[in-house]
Design goal:
Blueprint lengths: L7 H14 L20 H9 L29 H11 L12 E5 L5 E6 L8 H4 L2 H12 L8 H8 L1 H4 L5 E4 L3 E5 H20 L13 E4 L14 H26 L3 E4 L6 H9 L3 E4 L2 E4 L1 E4 L13 E4 L2 H8 L4 E4 L3 E7 L8 H15 L5 E5 L8 H9 L1 H4 L3 E3 L4 H9 L4 H13 L17 E6 L6 E3 L7 E3 L3 H10 L17 E6 L2 E6 L3 E6 L2 H4 L2 H17 L8 E4 L4 H10 L2 H6 L21 H10 L4 E4 L15 E4 L2 H10 L12 E2 L5 E2 L1 H4 L3 H11 L2 H9 L6 H4 L37 E9 L6 H4 L10 H8 L17 H7 L18 E4 L4 E4 H10 L4 E4 L12 H9 L1 E6 L4 H9 L3 E5 L15 E4 L13 E6 L4 E6 L4 H8 L3 H11 L1
Parallel strand pairs: 4-5, 4-9, 5-6, 9-10, 12-13, 12-15, 13-14, 20-21, 20-22, 22-23, 26-29, 29-30, 30-31
Antiparallel strand pairs: 1-2, 3-11, 7-8, 16-17, 18-19, 24-25, 26-32, 27-28, 31-34, 32-33, 33-34
Length: about 1000
């Protein structure tokens, strides 16, 4: 057994938590099911949306969307905020709508109507048939929301004329139908909403104006850690520890679900946000009081794109953008180009969806799709299940696209039925999408759509592969893996190198694992995790992994006990079909017991390694490996002690766990020795596609989805037992180390601070390429010698109770200290030294980044950051922008930015600048020891999106950069000091 009990620190928490949480509560939480009203006026619709009905629990939307009906008009009271919104919406009654003549009825086959919709067909514009489906969704939204104020007729025309306007980088507004949050990003979002209410109060305005105006779904999935593994009790034990560590955060979220209207919280232990979104929350088509429109969503997790596999337009945004969307602000976006990706052929036997997505990711990274939509089409679409499509859509952030979109077709409709959506709902969805030119029927002739560029992949050319050891787009075919691994050992330190001297590459470290002899080599697998929504939503690869485990058990192979194995399904449905198939017991025998329902290892919540394993790695400088079915494998993310991290399909995770090393040629070398004494090879345990399909067909049933999600919002005894106050303003506890009132609006007035440049700033950090949000704002463990650790210890928090950075995102004091605290940070100011430190230029002192930043701030000195390409890639963390702002960073100058992170910097008032093509800090001879002045006008009207600015240094060097305010709206945010002050001032005036 690897860890039948928790690590020592976890054990203490576990013992303490059992007594605290096991006085069971009988209270339940439920989504309310209400019958359909007659079609209501816009006024009554608004009131219904913004107020909970008396029958609805206060922390649900109070809407049963699975049937095509919405709330009955039963409003108990009309709050002032509702009246204001009613007046605004009343002006948008059909008789005053700029496109009122295109409001069309959708009849039911048996008589009556489903509702009305704004018809693209009735526009009779030939340009629509040439538009990609993803752009048609933007078009419909613009037409429906057109008020000639937030959304203008000219915006509709820009989208209609997409072929001509997209290359010109024109700006359009977009109003998503809903917002999706997870708890790591959801907690700071709710903190921001709470402190915005305080700011409204301080400005003498109505704090109730701060309320979500669109449905907000928050799934608690990022907090569970793999403290206990290889145990039948792992799920319960890990959940007890999760609640013990996060009780205050969870209570805060529960408060938010009662204090803010239109917010649904899915409690811990329910699943991973994107799988829950795919299987349950995704509407595909909204029917809101008789008005039909496409589902669309923005989420505070970059893998929100998984829903694109269901034909729902969705992508990740920063938390601050999501908050503005909740409050009714349109998103300002550049009308994107669309890459048409044609799929043909069929996957070969034994090739998985994971192999496909890693291949697609590599192709699209090479093609260049940052800021673009990717739309899939072609004859190969029919060969991909909905789950396969969702796997490809999920990894959009890894290939750099805003979306990887699969238009709705018959495969989508079949999946909706499989996952328990009612026949009537599915009929409504199909009827609406067909009527509005948003449905693909491959049995009918299609008009030719136009794309900005084209790619094509024959599915039969996809080979089994993994990606790593440090980036998701560094794909390696299985047949080349052994050679690639040895090249990585030889290569200099980098994305594909560890610089291990030849003479020690074959080193063996022997140690005792709980009394058993054990050994490690470079490449030994110490973590094998079936994890992440990317793959756990796909029955084919999950049941494929179980079949590998069964075949291995039958042949007498076992995973070595010092490999930390874990299985974290994305929803309870996975558990049901693994049990139905009779295969879960074989996963258990190999150590892949279920450890919880959440993101776990994929986001760094892998828990401690056994002390004997950790010591063997650390004391001998071993390059240990993790193999996980995740979507991110940046160094330092999965676990501090696994320098090599490989993304693989769940069946390959099991295979590598059995092999015990990544240093293996599966074609030629045996995985192990069977019970008959004969060598067992990869081919002996690998299931055929037909075997997998048969098990999927017999084991994955609609009733599993219905029963799982019928009770998903009921919570569990630990959640239901949390007591929260029924107040609209949050009572901040100054002693809390989890939830703290942030200083964003201290001293705020109704007058915006205006535009500004930067004068004589010092360089806080000087980076190379591919600095990720994991480097900028870590989500993993809090290092014992870090500034954040010092802060917690000073406040009486024991080291065993530190929890993770991700769990403390509601406390700005911790997060500011955790900014740039990644132990693998490479800062050129340190001349090759790796770690979270920098040089305080005036004194020459080497300090932690936080201490250096505070020294600059106390002296009234601004700072900037120099960076290379792809700055801010990775998860969409608003703290990666909030943290630098709190450290006093005024600008970031890089070769290029990841899309969401650039937007987040703007949202926090930080100036993003790009070097000119072919230039960077090195080519310009910048060392980071200079002082930098950025010449920007103080009048915002004198700044244009994308204009050139001159940066001068005290060394006499000057260079020209492009200021990356990409839209006029972003300039308005900058003028106000950020997006949230902008929203507060605007709402205060209404």
């Amino acid at each position: 057994m690897y860890i039948a009990t928790a690590s020592s620190s976890a054990s203490a928490l576990l013992r303490a938590s059992r007594a605290r949480f096991f006085s069971s509560s009988t209270s339940t939480l439920s989504r309310t099911f209400l019958p359909s009203p007659p079609r209501a006026s816009p006024r009554s619709f608004t009131a219904q949306r913004l107020l909970s009905s008396s029958a609805a629990t206060r922390w649900s939307h109070g809407v049963h969307w699975r049937a095509p009906y919405t709330l009955r008009s039963q409003i108990r009271a009309i709050a002032p905020v509702v009246e204001r919104v009613q007046r605004r919406i009343a002006t948008m009654a059909p008789e005053s709508h700029p496109f009122k003549e295109h409001l069309t009825s959708l009849p039911k086959p048996g008589g009556g109507e489903y509702g009305k919709f704004y018809s693209l067909t009735s526009l009779k514009d030939p340009r629509i048939d040439r538009l990609p489906y993803s752009i048609r969704i933007l078009l419909e939204s613009a037409i429906r929301n057109c008020d000639n104020f937030q959304v203008k007729k000219e915006d509709v025309e820009k989208i209609l004329d997409w072929e001509i306007t997209a290359p010109k980088q024109v700006e359009i507004p977009f109003k998503p139908a809903r917002v999706l949050l997870q708890d790591f990003t959801g907690v700071p979002a709710v903190v921001d909403l709470a402190v915005m209410r305080d700011a409204m109060n301080n400005l003498g305005s109505d704090s109730n104006k701060i309320n979500p105006l669109v449905p907000v779904d928050l799934v608690v999935d990022h907090s569970v850690q793999v403290d206990v593994a290889r145990s039948e009790n792992a799920v319960q034990a890990n959940m007890e520890l999760e609640f013990s560590r996060n009780q205050e955060r969870f209570a805060f979220l529960k408060w938010g679900s009662t204090a803010f209207q239109n917010m649904l919280v899915v409690p811990p232990g329910s699943g991973i946000v994107h799988q829950v979104n795919l299987e349950y929350l995704g509407r595909v088509v909204f029917n809101t009081n008789g008005l039909l429109y496409p589902d669309s969503v923005v989420g505070t997790d970059s893998h929100t794109t998984m829903i694109d596999g269901l034909g729902v337009a969705g992508w990740g945004v920063g938390g601050i953008e999501a908050e503005a969307t909740m409050l009714g602000q349109p998103m300002s976006m550049v009308l994107p180009g669309v890459v048409g990706f044609k799929l043909s052929g069929k996957l070969n036997n034994g090739v998985t969806a994971t192999d496909l997505v890693l291949t697609v990711t590599q192709m699209l990274r090479k093609h260049g799709v940052v800021g673009k939509f990717v739309e899939f089409y072609g004859g190969g679409m029919g060969e991909l299940s909905l789950a396969d499509r969702a796997t490809i859509a999920n990894m959009s952030p890894e290939y750099g696209a805003t979306m990887g979109f699969f238009p709705v077709d018959h495969v989508t409709l079949q999946y909706l039925k499989l996952t328990g959506r009612t026949d009537e709902t599915v009929a409504m969805i199909e009827g609406y999408l067909r009527a509005n030119k948003l449905f693909v029927d491959y049995n009918e002739p299609e008009s030719e759509r136009v794309y900005s560029s084209y790619l094509e992949l024959d599915l039969s050319q996809v080979e089994p592969c993994i990606s790593g050891p440090k980036r998701p787009h560094d794909r390696v075919t299985l047949k080349d893996m052994k050679a690639d691994w040895h090249a990585c050992l030889d290569n200099k330190v980098g994305f594909k190198g560890f610089a291990i001297p030849k003479e020690v590459q074959d080193k063996e470290v022997k140690f005792s694992f709980h009394g058993q002899p054990a050994e490690l080599k470079h490449g030994s697998v110490v973590i094998a995790a079936i994890t992440s929504c990317t793959n756990t939503s796909n029955p084919s690869v999950m049941l494929g992994a179980a079949l590998v485990a069964k075949k291995a058990c039958d042949l007498g192979l076992r995973v070595k006990p010092w490999v930390k194995t874990s299985l974290a399904p994305g929803s309870g449905v996975v558990t049901k079909y693994l049990l139905q198939s009779g295969l879960q017991k074989y996963l258990n025998e190999q150590g892949f017991n279920i450890v919880g329902y959440g993101c776990t290892t994929c986001i760094g919540n892998s828990g401690d390694l056994d002390e004997s394993v950790a010591s063997a790695i650390a004391e001998n400088d071993m390059v240990a490996a993790a193999v996980l079915s995740g979507n991110r494998n940046f160094e330092g993310r999965v676990h501090p002690l696994t320098r090599a991290n490989y993304l693989a399909s769940p069946p390959l995770v099991v295979a590598y766990a059995l092999a015990g090393t990544v240093d293996i040629d599966f074609d030629k070398e045996p995985i192990g020795t069977g019970k008959d004494g004969k060598s067992v090879y990869f081919r002996d345990i690998w299931p055929s596609s037909e075997e997998i399909a048969q098990v999927v067909q017999s084991s994955v049933l609609p009733e599993m989805f219905r029963s799982t999600y019928k009770s998903i919002t009921k919570g569990n005894p630990m959640w239901n037992q949390l007591s929260v106050p029924e107040t609209k303003l949050y009572s901040w506890d100054p002693n809390s180390t989890y939830i703290h009132e942030p200083p964003y609006f201290k001293g705020m007035t109704m007058d915006p601070p205006g535009a500004h440049g930067v004068k004589d700033a010092y360089c806080l950090l000087n980076f190379g390429d591919s600095i990720t949000t994991d480097h900028i704002s870590p989500a993993g463990s809090i290092h014992k010698d870090s500034p954040a650790a010092k802060y917690l210890l000073e406040r009486g928090v024991d080291r065993k109770d530190f929890n993770s950075y991700g769990s403390r995102r509601g406390n700005d004091e911790v997060m500011a200290r955790g900014t740039f605290a990644n132990i693998r940070l490479v800062n050129k100011l340190l001349n090759g030294e790796v770690g979270p430190k920098t040089v305080h230029v005036p004194s020459g002192e080497k300090l932690s980044v936080f201490d250096a930043a505070m020294k600059y701030k106390s002296a009234g000195q601004d700072t900037i950051v120099l960076a290379g390409a792809e700055y801010g890639s990775g998860s969409s963390r608003d703290w990666a922008a909030k943290g630098p702002m709190l450290l006093g960073v005024k600008a970031v100058i890089s070769k290029s930015f990841e899309r969401i992170h650039r937007s987040n910097l703007v949202g926090m008032g930080i100036i993003p600048l790009c070097f000119k093509a072919g230039e960077d800090a090195d080519t310009l001879g910048l060392t980071g020891h200079e002082r930098y002045t950025i010449d920007l006008p103080s009048n915002i009207s004198e700044i244009k999106p994308g204009q050139d600015v001159t940066v001068t240094t005290d060394s006499g060097k000057s260079f020209v950069c492009t200021v990356r305010f990409d839209t006029e709206v972003e300039l308005a945010y900058f003028n106000h000091g950020g997006i949230l002050p902008y929203v507060i001032r605007n709402l205060s005036k209404q």
